[in-house]
Amino acid sequence: MEGGGAPIRVLVVDDSLITVQTITSILQADPSLRVVGTSLDGEHALRAAQDLRPDVITMDINMPRMDGIEATRQIVRQLGIPIVIVSAYASANSVAIQTLQALIDGAIESVQKPSGEIGIDLDLVGAELIAKVKAAAKIGSRSRDRAGVAAPPRAEPSRMRPWRSMEPAGVGLVALGVSTGGPSTLERFVPLLPGDFPAPIVLVIHMPPVFIPILASNLASRSRIAVEVARQGQVLRPGAMVIGPAGTHLTVTRDLRVRLEDGAPVNGCLPSVDVLFESIARHVPGRSLGVVLTGMGRDGARGLAAMKDKGDVTAAQDEATSVVYGMPKAAAISGAAAYEVALPDLGQFLLSCVAR
User: Fold this and answer.
1) Can you give the residue range of the structural domain that contains 20?
2) Which residues contact 287 (CB under 8 A, 6 or more apart)?
3) In a domain, 154, yes or no
4) In terms of domains, do 138 and 195 share one?
5) Can you give the pLDDT at residue 95?
């Protein structure tokens, strides 16, 4: 057990008994994890979650009586237990859409079943599954801590200022970086932006390739601004957001065009927020805004510092509204982020920055 504490208690949910047995075997091979219950459908999973109060739940999507989307929605809303989706989202577009919806509804992460619904070869992604369950448990622990009366003290003093103290910046380009918790975070503020938003928006999100076009389509259908996957050479225009495709770095040229560049992962990420921000600092200095949103790790902090050094406006999401206060924290404690913004204020903050 990590740190000598109690094991992480996991509820495993899947309509395939073989898959349940496989996931249970994978998780219990790690001494810091303990499977405390299993369910074969969403209704039973909801009751088991209420009775057992596990630290983490692994959740299938397609199940009888109540599917994983509705079960996730109810468990997150009622109990706040972190959920890792385990589904065959690469095998069918409908499953990918459903998995993304579960992430929008509050699931923390997802793991792909390698060969379809019957997860007999889940051992191929066993290390990923274990890592994401452990990360979800830490998120759940921090969420429970925040539910108390007093806010937890910062590990490091913040150098950020309240954004409402800033003068209108009149920036001509907005760049966002986000990772874990990204789908639900984007759903909270992108649809609120006006259709005549006066600057282009570029976004890097850490997600598997199958989700990026679905995310763009989903946001486009709910938003007044245009949203699409970035294309090579595309001209960035006001009132539109482009999302970097997975497997390539997204950069911006001096004449505000998209450049997609091959390269090795940076901070383990492809695309990388640092690469996007550094290209903006290099090619569009002094007239842009960079914001680091929820996510694990520290991708974006170095690039945000480069933007700040060139006179750009920089900000990070606050701890209270971040699903994972990793990337924003790195940007905050390094001094790269000048302003701190809560998620409910993010739309108004962007509008304030682009106002002239």
Assistant:
1) 2-146
2) 170, 171, 172, 173, 312
3) no
4) no
5) 87
pTM across the whole model = 0.88
- Residue 221 sits in the same domain as residue 92: no
pLDDT for position 165? 59
CA dihedral 189, 190, 193, 197 (to 10 degrees): 140
Same domain, 337 and 194: yes
Counting Cβ atoms within 10 Å, is residue 349 exposed (0-12), middle (13-18) or buried (19+)? buried
Degrees (nearest 5) of the Cα angle 260, 322, 283? 30
**R_g (Cα) of the chain, nearest Å:** 20
Residue 283: the pLDDT is 96
Report how far residue 322's alpha carbon sits from residue 202's, in angstroms, rounded to the nearest whole number.
Answer: 20
Regarding predicted confidence, which is higher, 2 or 176?
Answer: 176
**301 has pLDDT over 70:** yes
**145 has pLDDT over 80:** no
Active-site amino acid positions: 179, 206, 299
The CATH number given to whatever domain includes residue 116 is 3.40.50.2300
Cβ 98 vs Cβ 69: under 8 Å: yes
- CA atoms of 93 and 87, how far apart (whole Å): 12
- Mean pLDDT across 115-129: 80
Supply the DSSP symbol for 61. S
Q: Residue 355's pLDDT is what?
A: 74
Q: Tell me how far apart the alpha carbons of residues 342 and 277 are, in angstroms, rounded to a whole number.
A: 21
